[in-house]
Automatic annotation (TrEMBL):
Name under which the protein is recorded: 3-deoxy-D-manno-octulosonic acid transferase
EC numbers: 2.4.99.12
Species for this entry: Caminibacter mediatlanticus TB-2
Main function: Involved in lipopolysaccharide (LPS) biosynthesis. Catalyzes the transfer of 3-deoxy-D-manno-octulosonate (Kdo) residue(s) from CMP-Kdo to lipid IV(A), the tetraacyldisaccharide-1,4'-bisphosphate precursor of lipid A.
Recorded GO MF terms: transferase activity
Family the UniProt entry places it in: Belongs to the glycosyltransferase group 1 family.
Domain of life assignment: Bacteria
Location (main, coarse): membrane
């Protein structure tokens, strides 16, 4: 009761900020849906309910979601919503803020929550209305662990409402136990399971480098070091609202074309003509990885992101170069052989010359996960 009242006052206090942010393109769908229930009714069908935060986590669910006839999926971000909508067997919603959940959540077969989405009201209400609650792909990063321990008393209350915890590693299992989790099984990281769906084919003119999932300041930092006479470079910003901003940055370094522009075609394949190409189309990375000669993984050269998933590139055995700030992806980095880590962007060309093909070490037991959800 105290938690609900506290959340209600937080909501009231935040209303002016929420209204202001709802006019920004990044939040124009998620904030009205999550905090005002605009076009965001409860799920209609009593089925399996999956919840994830953003694009990466939602995309990782595809391999599991495909094992079910129909599912409900809730998300937090716009990019997560678009990813979930691409699954033909899914009914998709934004997860409302905590104070709305007692009135919004309906009964379901199982609630399956991805990674660290530990919302108290979500599990508390779902425990009463669903047959089973599961925390999937559970992990506690090195950086986050001390913060979790400070609020152990709170997480103990959350874990009282979680029936099964499927952890990524033994290290995560021990940390989760410290926070009060019970019935933990180490199942591996579902992000190591990747089944590519190639929808477009490309032709390159020179050795191709992909700057994947880049963030603010990374594009210019990396492009300054690359020899654009020697390589073609495709830049893939992490957030679509930055497409125009990144396009302007790239034009400083040479003639730039856009994937969503009028690319020429030869024998049913799209031709990348320019030395610089902006990928301004969501879900296109996997198609580009098929012809890549090297991937520079973004989110790791600035210290406020924590890196991104290297598994997709490693599936195609593409050499991968990363910055040193990958603290949120340590578990996945450990699953890939030959990722080249550099601590100084000035060492980029040296790393390119000495890079080796990447390789995924182990793959998760997907059938075991599906069985635990369904049984």
């Amino acid at each position: 009761m105290f938690y609900y009242i506290f959340s209600f006052f937080i909501y009231l206090f935040s209303l002016p900020f929420l209204i202001f942010l709802s006019f920004k393109s990044k939040y124009k769908k998620s904030i009205p849906a999550r905090f005002f229930l605009y076009k965001n009714p409860p799920f209609k069908n009593k089925t399996y309910w999956f919840h994830s935060c953003s694009y990466g986590e939602t995309k990782a669910l595809r391999s599991i979601v495909e094992k079910f006839e129909s599912v409900n999926i809730s998300v937090i971000t716009n990019t997560g919503y678009e990813a979930a909508k691409s699954y033909k067997n899914s009914d998709v919603r934004f997860l409302p803020f905590e104070i709305f959940l007692p009135f919004w959540i309906r009964s379901c077969e199982s609630l399956v929550v991805m990674e660290a989405e530990l919302w108290y009201m979500l599990f508390f209400i779902a425990k009463k209305r669903c047959k089973k609650t599961i925390l999937l792909n559970a992990r506690i990063s090195d950086r986050s662990y001390p913060k979790y321990l400070k609020f152990r008393w709170f997480y103990e209350r959350i874990f009282e409402n979680i029936d099964i915890v499927l952890a990524q590693s033994e290290k995560d299992k021990k940390r989760l136990q410290e926070l009060g989790a019970k019935n933990i099984e180490v199942i591996g990281n579902i992000k190591t399971y990747f089944k590519p769906e190639i929808k477009r084919k490309y032709i390159k003119k020179k050795p191709l480098i992909i700057l994947a999932s880049t963030h603010k300041n990374e594009e210019e930092m990396i492009l300054k070091e690359l020899d654009l006479k020697k390589y073609q470079v495709v830049v893939v910003p992490r957030h679509p609202e930055r497409f125009d901003e990144v396009y302007k940055i790239m034009k400083k370094f040479g003639k730039t074309e856009r994937i969503n522009g009028k690319l020429k075609m030869e024998n049913g394949k799209f031709v990348l003509n320019n030395d610089l190409i902006l990928c301004d189309k969501m879900g296109e990375l996997v198609n580009l990885y098929t012809i890549a000669d090297l991937v520079i993984l973004g989110g790791s050269f600035v210290d406020n992101v924590g890196g991104h998933n290297p598994i997709e590139a490693a599936y195609f055995n593409v050499p991968i170069i990363s910055g040193k700030y990958y603290f949120n992806q340590t578990a996945l980095y450990n699953e890939v052989e030959n990722i080249m880590i550099i601590d100084d962007i000035k060492k980029l060309n040296e790393a390119i010359m000495s890079s080796k093909r990447s390789k995924i070490k182990n793959r998760v037991d997907l059938d075991r996960i599906v069985k635990l959800i369904k049984e």
